[in-house]
Structures are given as structure tokens and as C-alpha cells.
Amino acid sequence: MKNYIVLALACAVSASAQSPFSAETKSFYTQIKNTLIKSAEKMPEENYSFQPTPEVRTFGQIIGHLADAQYEFCAPVKGEKKSSTVEKTAKTKAELVAALKEGFAYCDPIYASLTDTAAAEKVKFFGRDMTKLGVLNFNIAHSNEHYGNLVTYLRIKGLVPPTSESSR
After folding, report:
1. How many CA atoms lie within 13 A of 105 on its CB side?
2. pLDDT digits (tens, 9 = 90+) for 123-141
3. CATH number for the 2-167 domain, one of 1.10.246.40, 3.40.50.10420, 1.10.10.60, 1.20.120.450?
4. By CB atoms within 10 Å of each CB, which of 9, 81, 88, 121 scores lowest?
5. How many Cα atoms sit within 13 Å of 110 on the Cβ side?
6. Which residues pair with 131 in a beta bridge?
7. Does residue 36 have a pLDDT over 70?
């Protein structure tokens, strides 16, 4: 875990020298995107229906929710109205992993083209005005929140989460 944190901070510091706000956001987005994809790929198919209690989502539903969320957060920044229903429709690991990658592929050019100037522009998000940077950072925070869920599910199934692999 230490190596992951040091690498994350080094990337953020290096990138922030060029364009501080947008570069840091791009760096953290890339990190969580890669971590979530690795988590989705790591969990065996038979555990995609696993849920620790009936009140929470299954592992697969969380992956579907994260795929859907990429459109929810990135569409307003792109100036589009786009949604997804992966959480409700996709059932297999292959469908969910592919949908997660597609969701990130939709967001990738939005993060890649972000500049500090564009980051300050306002967009409507859930009925209120927010900066593009705020919306994209909210996406990162939301993704990290659900990575925390995935870590628990992976550990319960005896698997080492991606961010803990390098510290073993």
C-alpha cells in the first residue's frame, strides 16, 4: 500500500507542476479507474452475486453502479444528457467488466482534455451549479467510496485488493 501511495503522490506532484488543478484530477482519476477495473477482473465470476447482507448490493451490482455513474458524472461536463442502466441489466462478469471499461472510455477524453480554465466552468449537476472540476472530483470520490465496498467483498472472499498487492 505504501508504494501505491508514494506513486500516487509522485504522479500528482509531477503532473501538478504543469497545470495544478486539472493535472491532479487526471492523475487521481487514472488511479481509481485502473484500481476498479483490476478489482472487477480479479473477482471470480461465481462471486459476482455475492452480497454480505441482503441490504447491500452484490459485487456485480456495485460494478454496474460504477459503470452507470461514469455517464452520470461525465455527461454534464461534456454537455450531454446520457445515462446507463448497467446495474439493472448486466448480469455476467464479462458484461459488467466490459460496461465498466466502456463507462471509463466515455469519461477518458473528458478528463484528458480538462484544463484549469475549463475546470472552472459551471455546469448543472443534480439541479445545482457546480464547476466541471467539482463534478469530476465528485466522480473520483464516489468511485473511491465504492472501491472501499469492493475491498471488503474481495477480502471476505480471500482475495487481496489491487491496492494492497504491492505491499505483500
Report:
1. 6
2. 999 999 999 999 999 999 9
3. 1.20.120.450
4. 81
5. 24
6. 122
7. yes
